[in-house]
Fold:
Amino acid sequence: MLIWGDNKLVMASLLRDLKGRIDLIYIDPPFDVGADFSMDVPFGDGNETVAKDQSTLETVAYRDMWGKGTDSYLHMLFERLTLMRDLLSEKGSIYVHVGPNVSDSVKLVLDDIYGGNGGSASLIWKRVTAHSDSQRWGVIHDVILWKSKGEHYVWNPQFEPYSDEYVQSKYTHTTASGRRYRLDNLTSPNPRPNMKYVWRDCEPPIMGWRYELETMERLFAEGRIELPKKAGGRPQLRRFLDEGDGVPVGTVWTGINPVNSQANEDTRYATQKPEALLERIIRASSNEGDVVADFFCGSGTTGAVAERFGRRWIMSDLGRFAIHTSRKRLIDLQRKLHEEGKSYRAFDVYNLGRYERQWWQKEQLKGADEDHRKIVLAFYRAEPLHSSVSPLLHGRKGLALVHVDSIDSVFSRVELRDVTKAAKESGAKQINCLAWEFEMDLRLEAHSLQTELGIEIRLLRIPREIMEKNRKEVTFFEVATLEVEAVYKRNGKDRNVDIKLKKFLPSLAEVPERELEALEQRAIKHGFDFIDFWAVDFDYRDGQPFKHHWQAYRTRKDRSLATVSDQEFAYEKPGRYTACVKVVDTFGCDTSITVPIEV
Ligand SMILES: C[S@@+](CC[C@H](N)C(=O)[O-])C[C@H]1O[C@@H](n2cnc3c(N)ncnc32)[C@H](O)[C@@H]1O
Structure:
C-alpha cells in the first residue's frame, strides 16, 4: 500500500485498523537542514528536462521541520515516533536512519518513547571512504538507530563474507579436491561423562567428545574428521570455508556502498538508499509474510526490498514525485518477478487529499464552509456574489461566473450540469468551476454540455498551496485532458480489445513559473511527451481498486512509450464492459478516463 500525504495524518488514519500490527518500521527522515529537493525531471526522449521545484507542500513540511532548527525537527520526530510505537507489533522493531549531526538527540527521543527493555543499538553505516573537512574529522557515516518494541522481538542474525585476510590466516588447509577448511577441536564445551569413549585408538578429552559415537562415525565417513598424524595426537573437526555462515554482522557496517548513478537500482531520487542496506535490516528483523513500513519512503527502497523478500509493505511520502517514483519502481519489480515466475502482490496507491483538507478546515478555518469559499475566491481573484440568483454560483471573475465546490466533495457530472444550467439562466457566457477533485471523465461531459447549452466551461483544480499559512498567491490550472479509444481486433470467433491514446494535454500545475511559457506550447503540440506511465484496467468497476491489466512506461534507459496497448484483452463473455485508462505525467499527476467496451 502506497499513501500520498503527511505521514502524521497517514499514521493517525492507519491506527484504527493497524494498531499493533506492523512488524518492522524503517524511516529515513530528511536530516539535512535546507536540503535542496528540486530536481531535473526528464520528459519525451529524455534529452530534455524540466526543473521540478520542491512542491509548496514539501517546502512547508521542511520549514515546519527545520523552522526552529533541531528543536522543531525533534518535535516533528517525537510526534511521529510515538505514532509508530502504537503501530508496531509486540515483536516489532524500528530503525531510524539519521545523520551524525542529529543522531545523539534522536537517540534520546527514541529511548524516551520506547523505554529500555528491548533490543537497542546504534549502527554505523560507513557511506563514503573519505570526506575532506580540513578543520575537523571527516564525516563519512550515517547512524541507524535500532529499537525493538518489547523484550521478545524477531531476530535473524546476519552474516557477511570473511575477508581475504581472515581466509588466508584461518582456512589454511585444503582437501585433495581443493576445498579450503580450518581445524577445530572435538572436545565437548561442557563436561559430559557419557561422551567419554575411546575412538579409533584415541583417548577421550577430559570433558568428553563433542559428539556421540554414531555421529563421530558419520562425520568421519563424510570426510569431516581428520585423524592425528602422530600417536598421542587428537582427531580434529574440519570446518569448510564454503559451508561457513561468514562473520556475524556487528554495529559497524562497512561493505555497503551508496547507490551510484550506473546501478540498476538507481531511480535518480537524490536521497535514495541502497537496497543492500534495507535487505540486511528487513532480513534481520522480519520474517516472510510480516508487515514492513516506511513512512518517509522517498524512492520506495523499503517496499522494493520487502516485496522481493515476501514481506507485505506500507509506504507513505509527502512528495508527489516520491510516490510516483515508488509506484513505477514497484510495478517494474512486479514485472520482473512475474517474468521469473515468482509471486508478488498487487498494491494500491491512496491519496490522503480529502482527509488533509478536512484537517485544514477544522484546524485553520474552524470548520466554516463559508470561510473556505471566501478564501478560494480571494486566491482566485474573483469577486464574491452576495445576492446570488442561485446558491450554486459564488463569484464573478471578468465575464465569467464562478462556482466553488465544497471542501470534502468530488465535483460530479450532476453538479456540473446543475451549475452550468444556473450560469446559463443568469445570462453568463462562461462558467469556471473550481474544485479540489473532479469526477472521472468530467472533461467529456463538459464538452457535450458546452455544445448543448452554448456556454464555455472551464474546470480548474483548487491548488493545495492555499492551505499554506503565509501564502499570498497561487495559480489555478485546468485539469488535464485525456482522450482514448477502444481498438477491436478479430481473433477467430473472439473480439480482442486494446486501447489507443488519442490526446493528452497535461495540467501544468507542477511546472515552475519560469518554465511555464515554453512548456505550454510544447504541451499543446506534443502532449504525449509528458506521459511517463499509463495503464489500463480492461474491466473497471466503480468503487473497486484499479487493476493494472496492461501498462507502459518510460525508464531511464528506454525513453520510448507505446501509445496503443498490445494486450489483446479477451473478455470471457460477450457483453458491455468499462475500461479505465490511467495516465501519470512526468510530474507524477494522475488523470483517468473510462471508455465503454462492447464485445
Ligand atoms: C531522505 S528521503 C527518504 C529516501 C528513501 N529512504 C529512499 O531510499 O529513497 C526523505 C523523504 O521523506 C519525505 N518526507 C518529509 N517529510 C515528510 C512527512 N511529514 N510525511 C511524509 N513524508 C515526508 C520526503 O518527501 C522525502 O522523500
Q: What stands out?
A: The mean pLDDT is 87.
